[in-house]
Predict the structure.
Amino acid sequence: MHNSPCPDNPGAVRATDIMVRDVLTVGPDTTVAQAVSMLTQHGISGLPVVDRAEHLLGIITDYLLLSMLYHPELGETQVSTIMTKQVITVDEDMPIPEVARTLVENRIRRVPVVRGKKVVGIISRENLIRYASGTGEGSSRFFLPTPPPHPLSEPS
């Protein structure tokens, strides 16, 4: 599921302006044990799974890998067999408020930033919060025109 940019505000800060460009990724043949090791070693909560052309195939998250603790025999399983394949992404030109809306409405912790099918960055909740709290006038661009659902409401 890909969210397209909103061209109605050309001066807005875009995903490309705050994304992490040096994205840690794994290939589909990476084992679950290797993915867990990378997550813990780098202190991150998710890894895009990409092919050799860096096209997004799926994503592995700490939440998904947490369930693997009950099945240690799956440590040598390839991530391609357990990854989430329907990945929500954003375009590199998407305005930051729309990126925030994407994370909130889909209740996700991070979103890969793509150019076509290629992963060019990633934005986490922490990146958005840091941007919103660390920019004086810029933070006003962060506010969404229509509030997302209340965090305690049931998903639709």
Q: What stands out?
A: The chain has six helices and six strands. Residues 2-6, 136-141 have pLDDT under 50 and may be disordered.
